[in-house]
Amino acid sequence: MLEYNGIHYYTNPQVYEPAEDTFLLADNLQVKRRSNVLEIGTGTGIIAITAARKARMVIATDINPSAIQCATKNIVANKVFNIELRKGDLFDPVKGEKFDLIIFNTPYLPTSEDELTDDDLNAAWYGGSDGREVIERFITDLPHHLNAGGKVQMLQSSLSDIDKTIKKLEELGLEASVTAKEKLFFEETVVITGILKKV
Question: Which of 142, 144, 183, 194 has its CA at a distance of 20 to 30 angstroms from the CA of residue 162?
Answer without folding.
Answer: 144
